[in-house]
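PROTEIN DESIGN WORKSHEET
SECTION A - STRUCTURE
LENGTH: 469
TOKENS:
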């Protein structure tokens, strides 16, 4: 059902100008949504991004510092000053950088601007994974078995692990991006792993609090896209299966998941929507689960838009970024799941990284020749262009290739076709690896776990080495 805000008699003051506190493809993605909504844009950028496509296409741009993210994209005073100077009335943080920084969200609001995302309190609550698990458990979500709170000593950790049974996983309470996790297979390995996990957590997140979870041996990663508004509405927009991972980082995402039944989809989707409603959640969010032997286990909640959001857009036809903006401006959600939001066909996204497809060594540099894929139901979200130099300072993801099809098979064929017609010369990309994944029998049958790709890559490397000998 499309619910027009005007029917409710509400006159909403839409933003006039949005500042985008991000870079790359997602900055461009937000500019596109704003332009369609008649909203002006300002992008902030580092000196290394002065010639980026986002800077070229935004209405205004402000240089906020040198290349290192800590001096530019994470420089809160510089970003707030840019917003004040340009007269922006809202800030979109996108993903990464300051998107889940509660202090930033709070400061944005204190400066009289709207932070496009949930409240700072909610960001804080979900940002601490221990608090998040406790919160959603109290709301009835199934969670991964593990320690009730933080683990402060080797003795406590060992005791809990032995009670639960190895293997276990030590995780950072403030963790993210798959960093700072240690798998422990037997008690003799515990002490070293515990110390490593704590020092990695401290180094990466400035907080050495860790906790323990049962390590699941054959799960899928299934996440639910949720949305809430300031009128008390909350809904889910289906799942994304992100089980193709390397080093706990997603490489390919799809909807619907090849392993979920209609009943399971409805069960976990409704549970996620119910959780969002109970939390009074505003904006876009994702609730991540591991799924094993027909059971779901909550892992974490991301209080922002995700890299893989286009997968959901392709099967629902809803522009998630414009929905985020509307909700932040106080409008009610324009879609209501209960009255028949149907997932249409199948969508798959692959992440294109500027990396060697075998060694994964980053491959920044100049793109000497570029041709984007196209055709029916093919979408390439990227900010690269011919002659563009990929700076070495940031994440190596340079684009996302997303295709839609009537079913999974059509989608896979379309994606392979689209990969083959993509031309990115001058640098290395992970496209050959993605094409290889799409042709593997396990991928085609849908029969794999989150550990599958790493095992397969290890076998491939071994084969290559033995051929060499
Ligand atoms: P991050 O915030 O770093 O992304 P997550 O908690 O979302 O951390 O975990 C990232 C990935 O790590 C998951 O997608 C999954 O592959 C793996 N993982 C996390 N918890 C477990 C677990 N208990 N057992 C097995 N794998 C796990």
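SECTION B - SEQUENCE
RESIDUE ASSIGNMENT:
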């Amino acid at each position: 059902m499309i619910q027009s805000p005007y029917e409710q008699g509400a006159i909403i003051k839409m933003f006039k100008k949005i500042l985008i506190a991000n870079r790359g493809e997602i900055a461009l993605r937000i500019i596109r949504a704003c332009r369609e909504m008649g909203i002006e844009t300002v992008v902030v950028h580092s000196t290394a991004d002065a010639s980026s496509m986002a800077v070229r296409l935004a209405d205004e741009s402000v240089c906020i510092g040198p290349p290192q993210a800590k001096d530019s994209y994470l420089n809160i005073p510089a970003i707030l000053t840019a917003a004040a100077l340009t007269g922006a009335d809202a800030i979109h943080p996108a993903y990464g950088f300051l998107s889940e920084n509660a202090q930033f969200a709070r400061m944005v609001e204190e400066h009289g601007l709207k932070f496009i995302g949930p409240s700072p309190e909610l960001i804080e609550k979900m940002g601490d994974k221990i608090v998040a698990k406790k919160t959603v458990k109290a709301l009835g979500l199934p969670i991964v078995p593990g320690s009730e709170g933080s683990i402060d000593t080797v003795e406590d950790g060992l005791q809990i692990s032995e009670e639960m049974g190895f293997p276990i996983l030590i995780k950072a309470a403030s963790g993210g991006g798959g960093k700072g996790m240690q798998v422990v297979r037997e008690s003799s390995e515990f002490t070293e792993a515990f110390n490593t996990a704590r020092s990695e957590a401290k180094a990466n997140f400035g907080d050495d609090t860790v906790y323990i979870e049962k390590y699941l041996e054959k799960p899928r990663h299934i996440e639910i896209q949720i949305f809430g508004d300031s009128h008390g509405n909350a809904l889910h927009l289906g799942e994304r299966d992100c089980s193709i991972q390397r080093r706990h980082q997603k490489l390919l995402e799809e909807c619907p998941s090849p392993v979920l039944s209609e009943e399971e989809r409805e069960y976990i989707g409704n549970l996620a929507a119910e959780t969002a409603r109970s939390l009074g959640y505003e904006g876009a969010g994702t609730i991540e689960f591991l799924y094993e032997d027909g059971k779901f286990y909550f892992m974490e909640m991301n209080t922002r838009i995700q890299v893989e959001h286009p997968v959901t857009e392709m099967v629902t036809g809803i522009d998630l970024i414009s929905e985020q903006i509307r909700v932040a401006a106080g409008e009610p959600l324009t879609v209501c799941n209960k009255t028949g939001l149907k997932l249409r066909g199948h969508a798959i996204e692959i992440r294109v990284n500027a990396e060697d497809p075998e060694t994964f060594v980053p491959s920044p540099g100049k793109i000497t020749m570029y041709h984007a894929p196209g055709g029916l139901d093919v979408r390439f979200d990227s900010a690269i262009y011919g002659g563009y130099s990929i700076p070495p300072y940031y994440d190596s993801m340079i684009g996302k290739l997303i295709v839609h099809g009537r079913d999974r098979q059509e989608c896979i064929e379309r994606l392979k076709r689209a990969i083959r017609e993509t031309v990115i010369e001058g640098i290395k990309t992970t496209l050959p690896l993605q094409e290889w994944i799409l042709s593997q029998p396990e991928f085609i049958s849908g029969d794999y776990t989150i550990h599958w790709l790493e095992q397969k890559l290890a076998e491939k490397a071994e084969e290559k080495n033995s051929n060499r000998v």
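SECTION C - NOTES
The pocket of adenosine-5'-diphosphate is lined by residues 144, 169, 175-179, 213-216, 219, 221, 245, 248, 288, 290, 299-300, 450 (CB under 6 Å).
Residues 262-279 form the longest helix (18 residues).
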